[in-house]
Amino acid sequence: MPIVPVEVLAASAGVPPERVIKLDGNENPYGCSPRVQRALAGYPYFHVYPDPDQRELRKAIAGYVNVAPECITPGAGSDEIIDLILRLFLDTGDKVINCVPTFGMYNFNTGVCGGKVVVVPRNEDYEVDVPAVKAAIDRRTKVLFVASPNNPSGNITRPDDLRELVETGILVVVDEAYAEFSGVSVVPWVARYENVIVLRTFSKWAGLAGLRVGYGVLPAGIAAHIMKIKPPYNVNTAAQIAALESLADIEYLRGRVQAIVDERPRLYRLLRSIAFLEPLPSDANFILCRVLGGRAKQVCDALAKQGIFIRYFDTPLLRDFIRISVGKPEHTDALTEALKKLG
Ligand SMILES: *Cc1c(COP(=O)(O)O)cnc(C)c1O
Predict the structure, then answer these.
(1) pLDDT tens across 230-263, in order?
(2) Which of 319, 317, 314 has its CA nearest to residue 120?
(3) Predicted local confidence at residue 268, as pLDDT
(4) Ligand 1 centroid vs 121 CA: distance in angstroms?
(5) Ligand 1, atom 5: nearest CA belongs to which residue?
């Protein structure tokens, strides 16, 4: 389910856009680096096409994650890299293993690319069921997706579990959209294994969700193929500038990430103090909560009326759950105040 823009949310709640507390999209409440705003305002060459080889951007990202530039493929969000990987590896009817509940794009893009999704549910702690994944692999299986930290459950996949999966030889795509909030990454594995791809993005930690810029870290041979099949100008000039300026302002942005990481346990404690909520521990910038008494929708709607927006789940695996992005301290305060009144 796609994200609803702030103006639409504001109109639905009858509050001005600046009063909206948007905790439904795991976006960065502090916004992007001010250097991004300044660089975009003063850029003189928007009339010229961007570099299709993305040389400067690949080099800067390579420096950030400490791999060779040949191993980086930038995309219009990491969503685009998911699509490109599946286009490259899937023939019609090939299988993709999806460890649910998880991010929706693996299922969506597999369908678009003519693949068949093999669903392997996570265990009761939302950990990947390694034996079940291994048992599901056959000769039509081309890709396994593992989000770590997982969205929406917030937990990382233990490196030992990931290693066991990688050692099956199947192509493992580790989606690290939230790695900057967990401090855990398997990017160094890309140099060691031929079947590991890591996805990263500027959307969450760098506050660039609206500009669409993410990347894959891939074995150089696979990266070269992706560069060949991608649309030449897939990352627009504004997005490339924004990513470069973010990496040039890394200390500032790390401070913002730290503020969110520091706020996470406070939000968790306050959610735990609400009688009808059972929050799950999280390594990301959001917290999944079970809502007791079948009240998840009611809670969401009541918050929305006050201009506080969170994500609501009502699927067989997530019946009566909500997901709340970690915001600024004042967002936590407003949210908990509103939740307490719902008693
Ligand atoms: C938000 C999210 C993404 C999307 O990132 P974009 O770079 O904005 O496309 C990818 N994976 C997961 C697990 C996410 O939650």
Answers:
(1) 999 999 999 999 999 999 999 999 999 999 999 9
(2) 317
(3) 98
(4) 20
(5) 78
Question: How far, in Å, is the centroid of ligand 1 from the Cα of 248?
Answer: 22
Q: Report whether residue 79 contacts ligand 1, using a CB cutoff of 6 Å.
A: yes
Count H helices, E strands: the chain? 13, 13
Same domain, 57 and 142: yes
The predicted model gives 63-86 an average pLDDT of 98
* Ligand 1 pocket mutation, candidates 26, 27, 61, 79, criterion most atoms within 8 A of CB: 79
Say whether both 124 and 217 belong to one domain. yes
Q: What percentage of the chain has pLDDT greater than the value 90?
A: 94
* Residue 289 structural domain: 6-32+251-341
Is the pLDDT at 3 greater than 80, yes or no? no
Indicate whether residue 82 lines ligand 1 (CB < 6 A): no
Contacts 24+ apart (CB under 8 A), 224-230: 224/70, 225/88, 226/73, 226/81, 226/84, 226/85, 226/88, 227/53, 227/73, 229/84, 229/87, 229/88, 230/73, 230/75, 230/80, 230/84
Report the CATH number that the domain containing residue 232 is assigned in CATH: 3.40.640.10
At 43 the pLDDT is 97
Which residue lies with its CA nearest to atom 12 of ligand 1?
Answer: 177
Please check the confidence at residue 325 and state whether its pLDDT lies above 90. yes
